[in-house]
Specification:
This protein has helices at about 5-30, 80-95, 110-120, 155-170, 175-185, and strands at about 35, 40-45, 50-60, 65, 100-105, 125-135, 135-140, 190, 195-200, 205-210, 215-220. The chain is α+β, with helices and mostly antiparallel strands. The strands form 2 sheets. Strands 1, 2, 3, 4, 5, 6 and 7 form a 7-stranded antiparallel sheet that branches. A 4-stranded antiparallel sheet has the order 8-9-10-11, covered by helices on one side. Helix 1 (about 5-30) packs across helix 5 (about 175-185). The protein is globular and about 55 Å long.
């Protein structure tokens, strides 16, 4: 993986973060009303409360993303630790989207995708939540959520996430699959240059083909 290449890094984070976000919907959000309190550094879903870090915000007026570490709202610095770590890693890897203060929103760069990478690269277990407001939305990282949010997924959830990624995003298929399998603690082997066998409760065969010099996923089937 080229750490300075956005598509590679996004592909490495995408599978596991979608699994985490789906689990967070089930075990944290639970289709409940939310309330964020930046003065206390928490978000509430119903009566459940979780610590937060401010990732950044989308502006519908300017059509831009602004990283939280810019801190135009004068938030307490304790809420910016996560964002500052993300920025430091961006500088280390020379990954421009993590370094630029403000980014124009498009299909590639938006609050969800930037939060997926920020949380996916974090050295702690976090998920994220989009908090909409008039004219935009704030994105926050949640910690101290139930451990089951980060549990490995079975073959059906794995394949559905991979299929969704292929249909919705421009990704590096090889990096997506291998990174997701590694996070999931799923043993696998390369059967050939274009085929992986992943050992879930039942084996999963993932077949690729070379298109434009890159491996693209063409099929998945269980044995």
């Amino acid at each position: 993986m080229d750490k300075g290449n956005w598509q590679d890094v996004f592909s490495a984070c995408l599978g596991k973060m979608l699994a985490i976000q789906y689990a967070a919907d089930e075990w944290v959000i639970k289709d409940r009303d939310w309330n964020v309190d930046f003065s206390r550094g928490v978000i509430l879903f119903g009566s459940d409360e979780y610590p937060i870090q401010f990732i950044g915000s989308e502006s519908e007026i300017k059509n831009t993303w602004l990283w939280g570490w810019v801190n135009i709202n004068r938030l307490d610095k304790s809420l910016l630790t996560f964002g500052n770590k993300t920025r430091a890693l961006g500088k280390k890897w020379k990954l421009q989207p993590l370094i630029e203060e403000e980014i124009e929103l498009n299909d590639c760069f938006n609050g969800h995708n930037l939060s997926i990478v920020a949380c996916g690269l974090a050295d702690e277990k976090v998920c994220y939540y989009r908090c909409p407001y008039s004219g935009g939305a704030a994105f926050v990282a949640l910690s101290n959520v139930p451990e089951k949010v980060f549990a490995s997924v079975g073959v059906l959830r794995f394949t559905s996430i991979i299929m969704y990624c292929v249909e919705q995003y421009k990704i590096n298929g090889k990096i997506l699959v291998e990174s997701f399998l590694l996070w999931n603690n799923t043993p696998y082997r390369w059967e050939s240059d274009t085929q992986i066998i992943a050992h879930f409760e039942t084996d999963l065969v993932i077949t690729f083909e070379y298109i434009g010099g890159e491996l693209r996923i063409v099929s998945m089937k269980t044995l």
